[in-house]
Design goal:
3 helices, elongated, single chain
């Protein structure tokens, strides 16, 4: 699905920039760049960012980054839809 101008203006783009991006026209004075999905090679996804705590575990930290990466990618997918 194409990017819609209302989603782009909702994230701070000017209406003119939003029209150009939605139409696939690069703007000569635009500093916007494509946002690519994040990758997290390890960890399991979830809906909780766990406290790493005093007894640090690499698995907990990996799971936190994986969960954040997945949520950011879901937001990006919705903005692009």
């Amino acid at each position: 699905m194409p990017v819609t101008t209302n989603k782009l203006t909702a994230v701070g783009m000017s209406p003119e920039q939003a029209k150009q991006v939605a139409a696939g026209i690069p703007s000569a004075n635009s500093t916007l760049q494509a946002i690519v999905p994040l990758t997290a090679a390890t960890g399991t996804t979830g809906n909780t960012i766990a406290d790493v705590g005093a007894a640090f575990t690499q698995a907990t930290l990996n799971n936190n980054f994986k969960a954040l990466a997945d949520k950011v990618n879901a937001i990006l997918a919705q903005l692009k839809a």
